[in-house]
Amino acid sequence: MQRIPLLINGEWVQSQTTQWRDVINPATQQVLAQVPMATVEEVDAAVAAARQAFASWKRTPIGTRARIFLRLQQLIREHMKALAAVLTAEQGKTLADAEGDIFRGLEVVEHAANIGTLQMGEFAENVAGGVDTYTLMQPLGVCAGITPFNFPAMIPLWMFPMAIACGNTFVLKPSEQDPMVTTKLVELALEAGIPAGVLNVVHGGPEVVNRLCDHPDIKAISFVGSSKVGTHVYQRASLAGKRVQCMMGAKNHAIVLPDANKEQALNQLTGAAFGAAGQRCMALTVAVLVGEAQQWIPELVAKARTLKVSAGTEPGTDVGPLISCSAKERVQSLIERGVADGATLELDGRQVQVAGFDQGNFVGPTIFSGVKPGMAIYDQEIFGPVLCLVAADSLDEAIDFINANPNGNGTAIFTQSGAAARKFQEEIDVGQVGINVPIPVPVPLFSFTGSRASKLGDLGPYGKQVVLFYTQTKTVTARWFDDPASTGGKVNTTISLR
User: Fold this and answer.
1) For residues 180 and 33, is the Cβ–Cβ distance under 8 A?
2) 107/103 Cα distance (integer angstroms)
3) Per DSSP, which regions of 325-438 are E strands?
4) Which positions make up the signal peptide (predicted)?
5) How confident is the model over 134-167, as pLDDT tens digits?
6) Between helices 95-112 and 62-78, what is the axis angle to 10°?
7) Is 266 helix (H, G, I), strand (E, B) or coil?
8) Cα 247 → chain centroid
């Protein structure tokens, strides 16, 4: 049985823990590997290696750091198929979606290679008599990242490349449910030239998370995952004096206006709701149908029925398995709650049968109409292939409905009206807005900007914002004198530099 190692100071080492967790193929229940629940001493060793490496890494020229990530993006492209196969085996998503997972992370690696233009300070000459002021964007030190199961390639690649490119060192804790593709990506990062100690990897559960939050040598933590754990990480790490950014739970809504292109809107809704089995923090889980668009429910159900549910390796699969047996049980119980709460079950995916994969964690596309706040299927993030339909009489009513939800990760509108789209983007209180785009995750030139209960911390995980997160701005005010006597021999006790 393969045992996933830790990476400490450039060496892959076997954990000395007595606690191991199985990594399971969610389509077959096959045990693929075992991952260690690392000891506190091993976490401390990883942090110590990162701290020691920081002394030299922070002085490494920007161009040298950037070239490492140019090489890494090339290696990722060369190994794309193999990486996707590993990701699908341990996480369950389709091979095509696995490649998409990797590619969206690859975009951030490419962005990290452009760090020279992103980490530039500001300069102002002669702000007072002979005085210049300029800023330096300097690395913080040891940073850490805690990543979720649903994007085991993309989200680690959101974190360590930008942190390291900025001159920091890094300790990464991948999800214990699917750490294998993350390990492969880290192997490629070492091959690309990341020096020993600059990138370290530990595995584990709450004990490891708490040690990362508490460790005095860690200066910043980036987290993506559930609201419960994210809130804990933010509070605990903030109390320990760290910078923290936490991207957390969501309940993403789409407004469908009756003037929308029906075929396009239905296709986009179906794909965004059920892709990756709904296990995306940006999945569209609520559609607010306005006016005559409420008549489109039968056609939406028909679209969902056409999706193939099977293992991610099978040709033509649209919806793969959920990550675990417990995830399947939770989703099925929430569907039962939806029925009990009075929502109309338009399409039931609980009894889906997948030939050849009888042990898989499959739930088929499920659609509820007549959903209202107070129902469990609306109030909770289901994280499964379940779409809730809500009726509204007007755009204003739909906007008010969305703004009343505490989450603010992403939202979208389907319309052919520029005026309606502009009103929506102005009045909606959600961080990321799509106009005829169902999953509006921005490219790395911009930053991921979830808001309200979906995010803690004021800076996003990539783009220009993350450079601010991973650096400390130092302001220098300088005056140089040509003549020692130019001060006039007088002592100045005022605050003015003039």
Assistant:
1) yes
2) 6
3) 344-347, 366-369, 386-392, 407-408, 410-414, 432-435
4) none
5) 999 999 999 999 999 999 999 999 999 999 999 9
6) 160
7) helix
8) 7
Do 287 and 389 form a contact (C-beta atoms < 8 A)?
yes
pTM above 0.90, yes or no: yes
The DSSP bridge pattern shows strands 284-290 and 386-392 to be parallel
Mean pLDDT of the 411-434 span: 98
Residue among 495, 281, 264, 286 at smallest CA distance from 373: 286
Reduced 3-state DSSP string for 71-121:
HHHHHHHHCHHHHHHHHHHHHCCCHHHHHHHHHHHHHHHHHHCCHHHHCCC
- Considering all CA atoms of the chain, what is the largest pairwise distance in Å, rounded to the nearest integer? 92
Q: What is the amino acid identity at position 253?
A: H
Of the candidates 340, 339, 338, 362, the one whose C-alpha atom is nearest the C-alpha of residue 351 is: 362
Q: What percent of the chain has pLDDT over 70?
A: 98
Domains of the chain: 6-248+463-476 (3.40.605.10), 252-435 (3.40.309.10)
Mind telling me the catalytic residues? 281
**432-435 sheet: strands from edge to edge:** 344-347, 366-369, 386-392, 284-290, 252-256, 410-414, 432-435
Give the number of other CB atoms < 10 A from CB of residue 135: 14
What's the one-letter identity of residue 323? I
**Looking at residue 442, what DSSP letter applies?**
P
Task: Please give the Cα distance from 109 to 161 (Å, whole number).
Answer: 6
Q: Label residue 170 exposed, middle or buried (CB < 10 Å: 0-12, 13-18, 19+).
A: buried
